[in-house]
Amino acid sequence: MFELVTPLFLSLIVGGTLVGIIFGAIPGMTATMAVAICLPITYSLGLENGLALLLGLYVGGISGGLVPAILLGIPGTPSSITTTFDGYPMSKKGEGEKALRIGICASLVGGLISLLILFLFAPTLADFAIKFSYVEKFLIIFFALTVMAALSSDMLIGIFSGILGIFVSLIGTYDISKGGNGELRLVPEGTEYWLEGGFSLLPVLIGLFGLAAILEQAEIGMPKGHGIKDIKVGKKSTFSIGIFKGQLINLLRSSGIGTFVGILPGVGGSAASILAYSNAKTFSRNPERFGEGEPAGIMASEAGNNGLTGGALVPLLSLGIPGDSTTALLIGAFTLQGIQVGPLFIGNNPDTWNAMIFAMLVANLAMFAMMYVAIRYFALVVTIPKHILFPVILMMCVIGAYTINYGIMFDVWTLLIFGLFGWLATKLRLEVAPFIIGFILGPSAEVYFVKSLESFGDVTIFFTKSWIAVVLWVLIAASIAGSIILSKKHGEATDT
Amino acid sequence: MGTFTRVTIDFDTSHLLFPTIVSGVLALLGLAILIRDRRRIAGSAAYWRGVLARMDKMRFLGTLGLTLVYFSLMVPIGDFWPNTGLGFLICSVPFVFATGSLLSHDRDLKSLLPIAAISLTGPTFVWWLFTYPLFLTLP
Amino acid sequence: MKLTRRTILAAASLAAFIAQPMMSAAQELPRNVRLVIGSTSTGGDTYQNSAIVAEALADHLGINIKVDAVGASEAFKALKRDSRGTTLMIFHDQSYLGHLYGRRGYEDPFANYAIGPTVAINPGNAYLVPANSPHESMEDILKAAEAGERVRVAIQPGGVSEIGFSAMKNAARVRAPGSEENIVAVNTGSQSDKNQAMWDNLADVINGSIQANEQFTQLGDGDAKGMKFVWITARDATLQQAPAEGMGNTTRDQLLKFASPATSVTLDGEQDFTFDKEFFFLFNPDMDPAIIDQIDTALAEIFEKGDIQKRQKGSFFIPNFLPSKEAKAHLEAKRDTYRNVIAEISGSK
């Protein structure tokens, strides 16, 4: 295998990681997009070199999202939504640099743990993953949805917002490629031409977090400064490894969850960080600090989404089935070279397999090194005057929305619609975090719920399908109970 | 398992099942909020008057208006030179400049100059990047 | 604001001025062409085929062609908006099968669009059963249906994945009228959902492909994921052109055993039903026919040279160039056959 490790191979990994980080860090650009753009180049690079580039892009793209999430409160990619919950409050307190360092370290840990799991257990885990039928997958999604309650400051309104998110995500057709029947619902008459495909996630996301924030600032007359202080000002701003003390379980659990969500085909990448975050909050001794700038929240989110990277490769390389939208593109890289991916891939192509593991390892280390060094350049973003930064962000959001589905103008309008909605939502005291989580998980929740009943024909199947289902119910119950206890405590605290 | 819990899903109408459930739950929760927060909701007219009174109308509505114009013109203009992304470039330059100067507090030459510089270089660089090296479709 | 409006007006009039000569000279493909495809995946077979053709065509004509994976319904919309030849489309049999099955967003492509040349075939469409299934062949499956056994087939409804299932029902009807009732669809989504339906014992037969499922047919005894081919829908003549080494550990000769004539799913008692997934161009109906001629000629020259065939075969596609007129006649005849199959079984779905 070592003859594969050429200077070209290494520089493709590092270069890919760098480009990936940049894509991840620009709101509106995603890891998936970076991989899609570079896919055609890989034909001439050959398989191992091509994969080196794409895996670098993948790891970099997933990681870069934490930068705008922490510094601007705009998630750079869908999987860094939960990073904004604690990262941005930390920035506002003047702890931006510390938050960045925590996020980068957690990303590395998540990436390495998932890589280790991939390397050691890929085929075994794939066999376990196929035990998850529609029923278990629905319960996983349901479990992820329970985080809505934990994230709400007012539980009734929070849950309402989350269900509204699900409702909005169902607008359009019941997607045939996910198992639906292709029929329209919830589409007002006369709007079918635009709405038949529903709203895409990325424009909704950058509308809610990007445009809405710009509108809010415009509304209050663009006060000087970013609302965040210099990223080093805060008293507790100094970062030391000590902050990870007592967080080992959190890091391991979040990386594990991220990896496992990646392994389950069809559950979707964004669910990884959401589940990791909700677990961290449920099992934390200080759950009330989550959402106010709690380092453990950033750790969970970033370990979770980087955990995804190794996980999503498990079903790809041991079943030929992609674990998320980015790995779906990797299949293209294999078929371009005439290589089959399926259950025999690892055994038939040991060199390629080893090269991939090695590339992932280098990509993770390169990501860590580059991002750690670049922190002070990231921080420059905060020094750009807002009246220059905002129009440029908006322009980038337009590009992101327009190119995410390869040139559909309705996605740009979606950005505007949800920018306005996001602005309006805070006025109406609706909660944006549960809304976006409902929106992300809604379509999977639907398919797995309906298909469970369609296939098994009995409501009790949700409880009786397997021991996995029972375990998931226990987790769901714990999460809900945790939220209720927390909200009671919170209520008493504010009453007195 | 009793017959009580059995359900049959007709595939042809299965697209309505989940939306119906979600709509129902949404309506119930909405009703609960309406009852619990009736006082706040009753006072919403005054609340919105306050919001409008405090609003920096020029910047807020200006940004919104400029965005609307920006989005509306991109495709028709780009249609003159199909598949070149020029619609994006031609619309972005004035948009970034206009929005930048609208949001800025100072509109003297010294403040407008950097905005002008960014509005020329930013969109041009991005347009070049996406059209040539990245080879993506822009309006 | 004034500045903006003035700039835009100026830009617009300048644009109109520059555009004039371009429009009068539109006898051939413009310099910048957008090729939309009927799939949203940039890792799938439609994208790969289109990218191969786009690259060859762009090189040959010295123009830029961008492939945009916007999906069927957006692709048709984009094609309908533009008759200048700046937007072209590549898709496969789904374009008319979607219409035949009455799916939303599909119009009759033969009536509403101009059919362009065919470029390639993906010969991979296949049906599989679990490795430990009592059914060894299509013959077993159809006999089981005759004997009153329910056979559940996992498909994605409304197109390419369903047509083989319709053919199975039709064959059952021809062999023993009424037995088609015993072949029932399990409606699923992607390939991973279909595999999962088999492993969850929700389906007895699944639709799949040579490329995605071959490795599952090579797993040892006792692996619960194991599968075996029962039917490959491609024409004998198509499969004969595949590389002799076949796919993975299955040679072309072994693959041929699962296709007609060795494996017979009858169409009418005499002929066998076959289905090749063919990729072809679709154009705006009002596009200048001169552009269609230009594309036909260019492709004829490209296929003459022979390099494109190597790339296609390297990715397990079968080169399949037919100029527009022949392509249209061929696809229409194919559509008529499938329309009859679907009509024959429609009473018993």
TrEMBL record, chain A:
One matching Pfam family: TctA
Ranges of residues in domain DUF112: 11-437
Keywords, in A-Z order: Membrane, Transmembrane, Transmembrane helix
InterPro entries xrefs: DUF112_TM
TM regions (residue ranges): 12-39, 51-74, 99-122, 134-151, 157-176, 197-215, 257-277, 327-346, 352-375, 387-404, 432-450, 462-486
Domain of life: Bacteria
Protein name as it appears in the record: Tripartite tricarboxylate transporter permease
UniProtKB/TrEMBL annotation, chain B:
Record keywords: Membrane, Transmembrane, Transmembrane helix
InterPro entries, per database record: DUF1468
Spans traversing the lipid bilayer: 16-35, 58-78, 84-104, 111-130
One Pfam family it belongs to: TctB
Residue ranges annotated for the DUF1468 domain, each copy included: 17-139
Keyword Thylakoid part of the UniProt annotation: no
Name of this chain's protein: Tripartite tricarboxylate transporter TctB family protein
Species of the source: Roseibium aggregatum
TrEMBL record, chain C:
InterPro entries in the record: Bug_dom1
Name of the protein in its database record: ABC transporter substrate-binding protein
Keywords: Signal
Domain of life: Bacteria
Signal peptide: 1-24
Residue stretches in coiled coil: none
